[in-house]
Every structure is written in structure tokens, then in C-alpha cells.
Specification:
Shape: elongated
Number of helices: 10
Number of strands: 3
Oligomer: single chain
Radius of gyration: 19 Å
Largest sheet: 3 strands, antiparallel
Structural class: mainly alpha
Order of helices and strands: HEHHEEHHHHHHH
Strand order of the largest sheet: 1-3-2
Length: 229
């Protein structure tokens, strides 16, 4: 069954949402011809969407095999968090010195959004708010190269948490740690902000379980039905 023709942006948003909601788990193959038929388009926009997802580290192309939903392996995750542990505390330190009123307002907004999503038992939405909070802190550092490095690292850790975070929505303490970090930045206490960011990373790692069983992937038809009126 094919659906009415969709625009590239809509296809991108549907596939991206399905990945972040763990409805297309790691290793799921995304076949160009099947996607094109399901979305009622040619392969050209599908190719473009897959390239965008690859840029965000959500999809990996394997030579002679095709495109697959990607998540770092445990070994890769260890390296990713090692780099995050080194760099993010420095970004928090600089953010405490340089954050603008607009930056602080955005940080506060994302913390409140995180709390609301956990209260509503929507942990995957909470993860997106958490990523936005951390990215706002990083961008407030005003260090172009630090931001560049951490943007990719943060995206990769977000993917890992999307699939392998085992924290229950009613037991997470992340928003308290985020609130403490925000307060330190707001008070311009750079050393305290750096320490809080440094202490926060091991807590994130502690919530990851690579043995967690994932649900089977939904079909593209099921996903389209779920994300369209």
C-alpha cells in the first residue's frame, strides 16, 4: 500500500522521530526502494533524507549493503563518553562566564520541559529536552571549536541513551542535576559549574545498559500511519 506523495522534510521528520522513539532500533536496514514506495516518492528525496540522517549520526552507510539505523557499540560509547568527560566541563566553565540572558532563559526552559515530560511519563521526549539543555550550555561557551566537537559527541550520546537508557521516569534525578548546573551558571560560579558537569557524566553512563532488549522495528507502513493524520 502506498501513501500520497510526501515532501522531503516530512519524510525526514517521520524517520527521525521513529528512530528517536526507538521504533526503528539499531541495525534496522533502511532500503531506498521500499522507502520510496511507502512514501510515494522517487528515490531522490529518500537519498537526501538518508544523507541528512547520516550527518546527524543516526544512519550509517555500509558499502555494498546499504543504510542502517546506527548506534555506537559499547566500545565506541566508552570513547565517546571519555571525550565528553574531557570537554563538557570546560564548556560549562566558559558558559558560567559568558552565558547571555537569552542563553539562561533557554536553559531554564529546557529544564522545565524535561521535568514536565518525566511527570507525563514521556522519557523519550524528556531526552530531547535534556539534549537541548546541554547543547544550550555548550553553545553559551562561545568557543566555536568546542561547540563543533561537542555537538557531534552530544548527538552520539543522545542516540545511545535513546536506545539503552534504563532510568525509570519516576526515579531519575537528572533534572535536579541540570537545575544545579543551571544555578551555578546563572550565579557565574565557573568552578562549581565545571565540577557539576564533571560529576554529571558518570551518572549518565550509569544509566546505560547495552544488554537491554529492544522492541522489534515497526514496518514503514506502521510508522507512516503513526506519524501522519
Amino acid at each position: 500500500m502506498s501513501h500520497s506523495k510526501m515532501g522531503e522534510q516530512q519524510i525526514y521528520l517521520i524517520l527521525r522521530s521513529a528512530i528517536f522513539n526507538a521504533e526503528l532500533p539499531p541495525g534496522t536496514q533502511l532500503v531506498e526502494s521500499s522507502l520510496a514506495e511507502a512514501f510515494g516518492v522517487s528515490r531522490t528525496p529518500i537519498r537526501s533524507v538518508l544523507s541528512r540522517l547520516k550527518y546527524e549520526s543516526l544512519v550509517r552507510f555500509i558499502p555494498n549493503r546499504g543504510a542502517f539505523v546506527y548506534c555506537p557499540t559499547p566500545e565506541e560509547a566508552e570513547q565517546i563518553f571519555f571525550v565528553r568527560q574531557l570537554l563538557e566541563p570546560e564548556a560549562a566553565y566558559l558558559a558560567a562566564l559568558k552565558a547571555s540572558p537569552s542563553d539562561l532563559e533557554k536553559m531554564n526552559f529546557f529544564i522545565k520541559e524535561e521535568e514536565q515530560f518525566y511527570d507525563q511519563n514521556q522519557p523519550h521526549h524528556a531526552l530531547q529536552a535534556i539534549q537541548s539543555f546541554h547543547m544550550t550550555v555548550i553553545e553559551a561557551s562561545q568557543n566555536t571549536y568546542l561547540i563543533q566537537c561537542l555537538r557531534e559527541i552530544l548527538s552520539l550520546t543522545h542516540i545511545i541513551l535513546t536506545f539503552y537508557d534504563v532510568t525509570e521516569s519516576n526515579t531519575t534525578h537528572s533534572h535536579h542535576e541540570h537545575r544545579a548546573l543551571y544555578n551555578a551558571i546563572h550565579q557565574r560560579d565557573a568552578n562549581h559549574a565545571k565540577q557539576l558537569a564533571n560529576d554529571h557524566i558518570p551518572h549518565i553512563i550509569g544509566d546505560i545498559d547495552f544488554t537491554k532488549k529492544l522492541n522489534h522495528a515497526l514496518t514503514i507502513e506502521q510508522i507512516i500511519t503513526r506519524y501522519t493524520p
